[in-house]
Amino acid sequence: MTIQTDTFQPVAKEDLAFVGTEPVPALPYYDPHYFDLEVEAIFRKSWLQVAHVCELPEAGSFIVRELEFAHVSILITRNRNGDLRAFHNVCTHRGTQLVQERAGKRALFSCPYHKWTFSGDGELMSAPDFERFYIDKSDCNLVELPVDTCAGMIFVHLDPEPQMGLAEFIGPLAERLNTLTVARATSFSEYTYEVAANWKLTYDNFQENYHLRFIHPRSGEAAGGESNPFGYPSHYGFHGPHRTQTIWSNPDPAVKPFQLFAFAEGVKVSIKDGLDMSNRDYFGIFPNLFLLGNAVTPFSQCIYPISVDRTRSVIRLYWVGDDDKASRRFAQEYAMATALDIHSEDRAVIEAGHRGLRSGALRHIQFQSQEVLCRHLFNEVDARVQRYRAAQREGKQHEC
Amino acid sequence: MSVESQLPAGFESLERFVPQWCIGRSCDRLQARLNSTARERADFFAAAKDIAPAALEMLDRKPSSDYTVQETRLMNLCLALAHIALAVEIQGPDEDHHAASAKYIAITRSAADR
Ligand code: FES
Ligand SMILES: [Fe+2]
């Protein structure tokens, strides 16, 4: 067996300079007005991941999702033909929120107020004393939203007529996403938390490894090594508004004995499930989703803005394999607890970042070359906000 | 007559941890970690870490749905150990600092829960 010489070279700063080298304005990270523009120019104009197909396993399954930044509640159903439909969770009589539960199985949805009753296809099926209205039932269907899937993930769009379909939006990255666990997951573990910070600061924390050795000295010990003390990635990729990196494969990670045992249990299960053990890819999908392709800890994080200074993260670890054996359950629990530890370590420093910026002390913030993904997110966000602003100035309504 | 043992034969040494660490749901296992003392965690980890591989190997012989009450308890101890191992082996002296932030995180779904 040959021992590979460990000769890591971080991606050179000259090779990343095309994304930009200038300081980045601080205001967009805390300004309420800028946030309002982001909602209009980005979150109402992009495909947003809100769920996974395994949450709607059969005809009649439904889920409800809240998008607070738009004050929108979305009802997603699987109809009799097995197709997904998405609607505003709003009764078309007088606007009452139709479904209160977060998930379930049901053929009909009755409004609590006057019992207008809709099918999973959004059709108004019955309404008491309907002869007294001045309309046709067929004009009273639920308000539909575009919905589509990529790699098992369900995306919705708040614009009834999106400028592009989901397939075009994700582009060639879909092929790589389709090889991940998420694409054929049958279950998942999930945890959520909110931070008092802007959504971009939350996202950026997961787009750079510069902080690992300081914020995760123990949990992240295996991420860095002698030749790569910061654990910088071995590759960056830019794909329109999306971005990727390849996590460095540490040839000699510092691993504790029980950690090694638990990890080996995960490897055993993953190999049995036929997962790609070599995947080290990170996918940042615009605007607010990222996934890790790692087989043992296959997690995704969706970063939902609630307001300019409040953000909810939903973290999921997706699983395949249908047995409920002890070693699988143990590996799943250990993987989830591992990811959760890292998220809890990050929480305070994300909030501290927002507090510092909100003070207005800085006009600009600095990104080094290995924070290029943070810069790329800002570039993509700001381009859309500026285009929206310009269009508004010209009085055009639907430009983005 | 001896009292019926709470765990499968061979795992008697873990009996004393059943009241604190035999927990049926992931979200409650996290809470138990956050509400425990360093000594309680260290005790449990020291006693369980070398037995866990044998426990999982034994439990792997059948699906979880076929477990006896004793086997279910042993499984739940192993799942609690996943959390406690991280607290003791990885966080060590930083666990209190870590717990201060972890309390804001809610486990909302767990594939390990049956
Ligand atoms: S508001 Fe829904 S039935 Fe009246
Ligand atoms: Fe971090």
Radius of gyration of chain B: 14 Å
- Derived from helix and strand composition plus strand pairing, the structural class of chain B reads mainly alpha
Structural class of chain A: alpha+beta
Low-pLDDT runs of 5+ residues of chain B are none
At the first level of CATH, the class of the largest domain in chain A is: Alpha Beta
Chain oligomer state: heterodimer
Q: Name the overall outline of chain B.
A: globular
Overall number of domains of chain A: 2
Parts with pLDDT < 50 across at least 5 consecutive residues of chain A: none
What does the main sheet of chain B amount to? none
Mean pLDDT of chain B: 95
Q: Assign the CATH superfamily of the largest domain in chain A.
A: Naphthalene 1,2-dioxygenase Alpha Subunit, Chain A, domain 1
SSE pattern of chain B, N- to C-terminal: HHHHHHE
Global morphology of chain A? globular
Number of domains of chain B: 1
Strand count, sense and barrel status of the largest sheet of chain A are: 7 strands, antiparallel
What is the total tally of β strands of chain A? 20
**SSE ordering of chain A:** HEHEEEEEEEEEEEHHEHHEEHEEEEHEH
Explain this structure.
The complex is a heterodimer of chains A (400) and B (114). With 400 residues, chain A is of the alpha+beta class. In chain A, 27% of the residues lie in helices and 24% in strands. Chain A has helices spanning 13-16, 32-43, 166-170, 173-177, 199-205, 212-215, 257-272, 326-358, 372-393, and strands spanning 24-25, 48-52, 61-67, 72-78, 84-88, 103-105, 108-110, 117-119, 124-126, 144-145, 147-150, 153-156, 187-195, 235-239, 242-246, 281-285, 289-292, 299-307, 310-319, 364-365. In chain A, strands 13-19-18-17-16-15-14 form a 7-stranded antiparallel beta sheet, with helices on one face. Chain A has a 5-stranded antiparallel beta sheet with strand order 6-3-4-5-10, with no helix packed on it. In chain A, a hairpin with a 2-residue loop joins strand 18 (299-307) and strand 19 (310-319). In chain A, helix 5 (199-205) runs antiparallel to helix 9 (372-393). The termini of chain A are far apart. By secondary structure, chain B is mainly α. Helix content of chain B is 55%, strand content 4%. Chain B is built from 6 helices and 1 strand. The longest helix of chain B is centred in the last third of the chain and has 23 residues, at 69-91. Chain B is globular, with a radius of gyration of 14 Å. The chains are: A alpha+beta (400), B mainly alpha (114). Chains A and B meet through strand 13, helix 7 and helix 8 of A and helix 2, helix 4, helix 5, helix 6 and strand 1 of B.
